[in-house]
Amino acid sequence: MDKKIEVNKNPNVEVPIEDPALAKKQKAGMIAGVIVIIFAGILSGYFLSGAKGTGPSGTSGTVNSEKVVGSTNTQEYPDLAEGTLEVGGIDGEGTHRLIRPGGDSQTVYLTSSVVDLDQFVGKEVKVWGETHTAQKAGWFMDVGRVEVK
Predict the structure, then answer these.
(1) Is 108:89 a contact under the CB 8 Å cutoff?
(2) What is the model's pLDDT at position 83?
(3) Is the pLDDT of residue 127 over 90?
(4) Which residues contact 111 (CB under 8 A, 6 or more apart)?
(5) What is the chain's alpha carbon radius of gyration, rounded to the nearest angstrom?
(6) 90: which strand partners?
(7) pLDDT tens-digit map of 19-62
(8) pLDDT tens digits, 69-126
(9) Number of CB atoms found within 10 A of residue 93's CB
(10) Paired sense of beta strands 108-111 and 68-71, if any
(11) Nearest-10 Cα torsion for 126, 130, 131, 133
(12) Which end of the chain has a smaller Cβ tally under 10 Å, C or N?
C-alpha cells in the first residue's frame, strides 16, 4: 500500500494525508445514515397517515357501503338522529337538514366535512355526529356517519 507523503514546507500548517480506506468507510457510513433517515420518514408517514383504516389519532376508520358511509368512530361522533334528509340550512348554519317528527322544533341542521350529504337527499337516514352550538339552529350537528334506513 503506497501512501503519499507530502513534504510540509510550512511547519505551522498541517497537511492532511488522505487514507482511501478511511474515506471509503466514511462514505459507506453516510449512505447508511441517509437510508436510516429515509426509512424513519417513511415509517412515521405511514403511521401518521392513518394506514390500515385508522385516522391520525389511530382510532377512526371509515366505512363506505351501499347503506352506510362515514366514520366508524362512535366516540368522535356520539350523537344520533333519524329522519328525512333535505337540502338547506337555516340562516347560513348547515348545508342540510334532517326533518324529524314533531315539527320544526325537532329539525336537526347538518354539516359534514366527512360525508357527502347530497347523496342521501330525500332518503330516510340515521346520522351520527357531534353537536355544536349555533346562533339560529336549535340543533346543529357535524355529521360523521350516515346510514340509509
Answers:
(1) no
(2) 96
(3) yes
(4) 89, 94, 95, 96, 140, 141, 142, 143
(5) 31
(6) 93
(7) 777 778 888 888 988 898 998 888 888 777 655 444 444 445 77
(8) 998 887 889 999 999 999 999 988 899 999 999 988 899 999 998 899 999 999 999 9
(9) 16
(10) unpaired
(11) -140
(12) N
Task: Name all domains of the chain by residue range, CATH numbers in brackets.
Answer: 62-148 (2.40.50)
One-character DSSP codes across 76-111? TS-EEEEEEEEE--BTTB-SEEEE-TT-GGG-EEEE
CB distance 97 to 88 below 8 Å: yes
Output the nine-digit C-alpha cell for 134. 349555533
In whole angstroms, give the CA distance from residue 114 to residue 134: 20
Give yes or no for a contact between 99 and 84, defined as CB atoms under 8 angstroms apart: yes
Q: What would the grid cell of residue 44 be?
A: 412515521
The C-alpha atoms of residue 82 and residue 100 are separated, in whole angstroms, by: 7
Do 108 and 146 contact (CB within 8 A), yes or no?
Answer: no
**Residue pointed to by grid coordinates 355529521:** 143
3-state secondary structure 2-25: CCCCCCCCCCCCCCCCCCHHHHHH
Task: Answer yes or no: pTM beyond 0.90.
Answer: no
